[in-house]
Every structure is written in C-alpha cells, then in structure tokens.
Amino acid sequence: MKYEEVPETIQISFEKIKKEYFPYLANAKILFLISKKKMMSKGRIVLGKIVKPSALVKYLSRNEAPDDGYDYIMYLDTKLVHHCDESDIERVLRHELRHIFYDSDSKNPYKLIDHDFSDFYDEVDLNKDDPNWANRVARTISLIYEQEKDQMS
Ligand SMILES: [Zn+2]
Fold this sequence. Notes:
- The chain is an alpha+beta fold.
- It has one domain (about 5-150).
- It has 6 helices and 8 strands; from the N terminus they run βαββββαβααββαα.
- The strands form 3 sheets. A 4-stranded mixed β-sheet has the order 1-2-6-5. A two-stranded antiparallel sheet has the order 3-4.
- The chain starts with a strand and ends with a helix.
- Zinc ion (ZN) binds next to loops.
- Zinc ion binds near residues 95 and 115.
C-alpha cells in the first residue's frame, strides 16, 4: 500500500492549529494520509501536499465524511510524521492549510490557492524563529531515505 492512516497526534495538532489560525475551516472535511513513497517535485522532496479529491473519491467517501465526502486530502511524508518534531509537523500542516482558499460567496467554497514564493506571508512571520525550516526538514528526511536505501542494498 502506498498510503497509510495518520496517527492520532496529527488530528490533534490539526484541531489545535485550526482553532488558533484557521477558524473558517471549522466545517472543512480533510482526510490526512501518510504517503509511504517519497513525493518529489522539481527535484525537491515534498513534505506535504494538499489536493482536492476527485468526484469519484468524494462519492466513495460520502459515508465517512457526510454529506459530500472530503473537501481536501492532505498527504504527509512518512518520515516527516514518524521522525520529525511536532513543531516541524505543525509548520508543514499550517503551510498546507494556507493553500486553502475559503470562498464564502461560492456554493463550492473550498478552493486551493498557490503562493508567489516558497511560502505564505503569514507563515514567514510565524516561522521567523527558523526561516530555513523547510530546507532543514527536507534535508533530514532525505538523509533518512538515503540511509534506508543503504541498509537495503
Ligand atoms: Zn506550498
């Protein structure tokens, strides 16, 4: 299996972050999944990724997430979830949640937005204790994948 359920700690972190920074997501239904396979984009490791589920996935998840199924799916790297500090996981969660654009005027209010540079302005401020956190965490995770590969060969 390429995916795995997240530990309960992720859901707890999400609830905490949502209350503090994302009150407009009170009713958003987000499925968190661990990606057991390394996710890459433009030669860089991807720590987390948020997407809109397909119509089929929405339909299939209608019982689990009434009435319309999940609004979003967030994939998290397995090494991030299992080897990194809670504070770094929360940075990733917050970053991914910033990709959500809640359009209260629309009947499909849950949209996605991209950023102009590698982060969102609000996050830059929240991460000013460690502005280079994303590279640091990506490096740590890459090393863990490398070590694993070495052990297997
Ligand atoms: Zn992003």
